[in-house]
Specification:
With 242 residues, this protein is of the alpha+beta class. The chain contains six helices and ten strands, in the order αβαβββββαββαββαα. The strands form two sheets. Strands 2, 4, 5, 6, 7, 8, 9 and 10 form an eight-stranded mixed β-sheet that branches. Strands 1-3 form a two-stranded antiparallel sheet. Helix 5 packs across helix 6. The protein is globular, with a radius of gyration of 17 Å.
């Protein structure tokens, strides 16, 4: 099921920074650049919100909970949860709403079709840690004038610390195109200012898996996922595949 994901992989953008043997370009950020903008941006409109709500409900069913952002950061990020049961979806779906109000700072050779995204996460139950991580990651590219795309990885600090569980081997987030239907069709249903909005599937991985991706490219990691029948529904933790 990961074959089509491998076909989506494009070359890493040529910007300043180290290129790993696997072709990944490394970006580094100083701690003091994480400064959320507070205020109002006319591009973050109620019309965009209404568009997303309509499409989300057609994909996932009735909204279970909306976790609103209290401080008026730009963009305003809400987190939506959807219960299992809609059209055979036997898992919880968590999505961001608001990340796509503003385009990410994608390199010129990537193009506007990758500039707007929302994050999606599949799990067997909703946990506060999942909500916090998705909210932080939805702000990250805007706070840092950067972008997220297929195959990008973000470690939980340096050195990377466990995600969600104190002793978990999951330390890094990998961004992929979702393999769940019809979620991969979001860009055909939701367009903001002429740009398609795409879901980036958030996948927790281990240090060793991240190193394999950096050394050999994300295709090798997708091969490994297929070999072990990696489940797309996250259950809180797992063993490392390497």
């Amino acid at each position: 099921m990961f074959d089509w994901l491998k076909r989506m992989l494009g070359g890493a953008p040529l910007q300043d920074g180290e290129v790993t043997p696997g072709g990944s370009r490394v970006y580094t950020y100083d701690g003091d650049v994480f400064q959320n903008q507070v205020g109002v941006d006319h591009r973050c409109s109620s019309e965009n919100l209404e568009k997303r709500d309509k499409v989300y409900e057609s994909f996932f069913g009735e909204i279970d909970q909306v976790y609103h952002e209290v401080i008026p950061f730009v963009p305003h990020i809400d987190i939506y949860t959807f219960k299992p049961g809609f059209q055979g979806r036997e898992f919880w779906t968590i999505v961001t709403s608001g990340m796509s109000d503003l385009p990410m700072n994608v390199p010129p050779d990537v193009g506007p079709e990758a500039s707007r995204a929302e994050l999606i996460f599949y799990c067997n139950r909703v946990e506060e840690g999942y909500l916090n991580v998705l909210r932080a990651m939805a702000h990250f590219p805007h706070d840092n004038q950067s972008w997220f795309g297929f195959g990008h990885t973000v470690p939980n600090g340096q050195p990377a610390a466990p995600l969600f569980r104190p002793k978990s081997l999951m330390t890094t987030l990998l961004f992929l195109g979702t393999i769940v239907s019809p979620d991969a069709e979001l860009g055909e249903q939701l367009v903001i200012d002429g740009d398609p909005v795409n879901f980036l599937w958030v996948v927790p991985i281990s240090d060793a898996e991240c190193e394999a991706k950096l050394e050999h490219g994300v295709e090798k990691l997708l091969d490994l996922f297929e070999e072990v029948s990696h489940p797309f529904v996250f259950t809180g933790d797992r063993d490392s595949y390497l």
